[in-house]
Amino acid sequence: MAPSRGGESMGIDIGLLREQCGRTLERTHLENLGERFEAKVRDNYIQAEQGRRLIVVSDRVSAFDVILGTLPFKGQVLNQLAAFWFEQTRSLAPNHLLEVPDPNVSVVRECRVLPVEFVFRAYLTGSSNTSIWRAYERGDREYCGHRLPDGMREHERLAEPLLTPTTKAELGAHDELTSRAALIESGTISEELYDRAEALGRRIFDAGAKRTSQQGLILVDTKYEMGLSPDGELLLVDEVHTPDSSRYWWSHGYERAMSEGVAPEALDKEYIRRWLVEHGYRGEGPAPALPDDVRCEASRRYIEAFETITGAAFEPDTDEPVARIERNLARFFRPRA
């Protein structure tokens, strides 16, 4: 697959990316930092007595709900871009972010995460077997409780962004498509709380689409996670509008791509998904290993997304990550017994 032509990075050295392939942050085991549990990308350390959680964003990359390996500097990009969006949207919705003491680490308010992923889709697209496009291609005209009109084309804009929720699967399992009605009927979430979360998500999606359109990007779809604080406040949690949670296209080439019947040029994790599909993988069985040139190109796109969205140069920290994290988090460690 050819590199992106949408824009040039502000200065990331491809040679540096290749060097970093051998010293990525795969996972952490930080003793005396708190109760640890591992998600697809994030290592979480819960300090319940302080009402906070320390989230270490690793360089792990996943697609089709399968962990594939690591990408150089990915964790730094995700953590810092999420922090950017949390600050940009704080006036629209409260969130859990307290501080960012390390390029790979966020300190957040501890809360009860809702058992639903709130996925907003503005275009008829996607490469996974559960995507809205694959369902439409199979002839389905109802998707997560929404009726879809006949005669639409792949990558076409929907009449309005649709909330297409999924369940939250355990690590290693696949999230399942669902609907508002099914979630409420099953007792997974109350009608009142679902509607509050939908309203919050729409505010953030609209703000993200507006901001990224000004930067020459289309926010195609995204997923949000939300939680309740101990006093019942609904909070935006996890990450916001990162290349992991969101699909981006370059806006300047969209109309041409549609007229030529090709996929719009993407600036997100879709590059890896498409590489996997080209190699016959859609999430079932062992995944093929990612070559270093694919890892570096994916990393370059993550960095390009960061720089395009924020308007600032990405400044990679090349220190050995675990030692640096331990140093920067020294005040959060509990005294040894």
Describe this structure in words.
The protein has 337 residues and is of the alpha+beta class. The chain has one domain: ATP-grasp fold, B domain (D-amino Acid Aminotransferase, Chain A, domain 1, 2-Layer Sandwich), CATH 3.30.470. The chain has nine helices and 16 strands. The chain has helices at residues 14-20, 74-88, 132-137, 180-186, 191-214, 254-260, 270-278, 292-310, 321-328, and strands at 35-38, 42-47, 52-57, 60-63, 66-70, 97-102, 105-109, 112-113, 116-123, 142-143, 146-147, 157-163, 166-167, 217-228, 234-237, 246-250. The strands form four sheets. Strands 8, 9, 12, 13, 14, 15 and 16 form a seven-stranded antiparallel β-sheet that branches. A five-stranded antiparallel β-sheet has the order 1-2-3-7-6. Strand 1 and strand 2 form a beta hairpin. Helix 2 packs parallel to helix 8 (292-310). The radius of gyration is 20 Å and the shape is globular.
Blueprint of the fold:
Layout: H1 14-20, E1 35-38, E2 42-47, E3 52-57, E4 60-63, E5 66-70, H2 74-88, E6 97-102, E7 105-109, E8 112-113, E9 116-123, H3 132-137, E10 142-143, E11 146-147, E12 157-163, E13 166-167, H4 180-186, H5 191-214, E14 217-228, E15 234-237, E16 246-250, H6 254-260, H7 270-278, H8 292-310, H9 321-328
Antiparallel strand pairs: 1-2, 2-3, 3-7, 4-5, 6-7, 8-14, 9-12, 9-13, 9-14, 10-11, 14-15, 14-16
Helix pairs in contact: 2-8
